[in-house]
């Protein structure tokens, strides 16, 4: 190896890759369990939900395969050969993994944005802004991928640092904005109906925790990318980020019955009517923003029917409290 080359520190390069691979593999295992649980618990769920769950798992599988190949390339194929870390071009699977992670994150955030659209009584301005933020982040992530393929070596990564920072920063802002919007509109839907208030409190806590977790990892990746662009510590954080998005989506699917205080579809022996993405799904609970008079039937605990006798008397068009 020429004398002018400085050997990299393996702790924050190969070591960071191995640690990130191990954590992301664990997260992928958790995601796989979530997917298995979903298909077993909701065998009669909507085909669109099943396809979306399969799509997210497939992207995550390819994502994890890219991570594994990158680790294999640097630790086995180039065993005792640190030159690729110093002068070699960025490994192609490592670059594409970042793009796949951005795609998974965009899909999940789009689904949660549609949730905001439902809870906000179809506030097109708010949801439109959120969708623009998601699209802008995905666009900058794709542009970052293209630029990375043009880099002659890792030492030139600083040339695309601003573009990568913008993409990660948009992700942080989008996560926090979606979580804040969900909490705001969920709090506006509080009423004197104890069962519904309990469900709203649970949904609010879930929205805060989900947004806080993904925002924290995104912000950590952004900070590490700017203060230590010469190593793979920020890459280690990004390995986990896309899995967290996927896990949060599948967890939302799997906890629908728990939040509503019921068993699984097989236990109830009926198909699920839980609203997730589109406005055409049947609502699980009908709830007004303001109540002028409340009459609650005990059967509301056991049915999601649209029959008026099972619904809370309302003073305005009800909002669907679903996924």
Protein described:
With 323 residues, this protein is an all-alpha fold. It is built from 10 helices and 2 strands. It has a two-stranded antiparallel ribbon. The longest helix has 34 residues, at 194-227. Mean pLDDT is 77; it is low at 261-322.
List the topology elements.
Elements: H1 14-41, H2 47-77, H3 83-86, H4 92-119, H5 124-150, H6 161-188, H7 194-227, H8 233-254, H9 256-259, H10 265-268, E1 286-287, E2 319-320
Antiparallel strand pairs: 1-2
Structure described in brief:
By secondary structure, the protein is mainly alpha-helical. Helices cover 65% and strands 1% of the residues. The chain has helices at 14-41, 47-77, 83-86, 92-119, 124-150, 161-188, 194-227, 233-254, 256-259, 265-268; strands at 286-287, 319-320.
Descriptive keywords:
323 residues, two-stranded antiparallel ribbon, globular
Instruction: Kindly report the average pLDDT value.
Output: 77
Q: In DSSP terms, counting alpha (H) and pi (I) runs of 4 or more, how many helices?
A: 10
User: What is the rounded distance between the termini?
Assistant: 57 Å
- Unreliable parts: 261-322
Class inferred from helices and paired strands:
mainly alpha
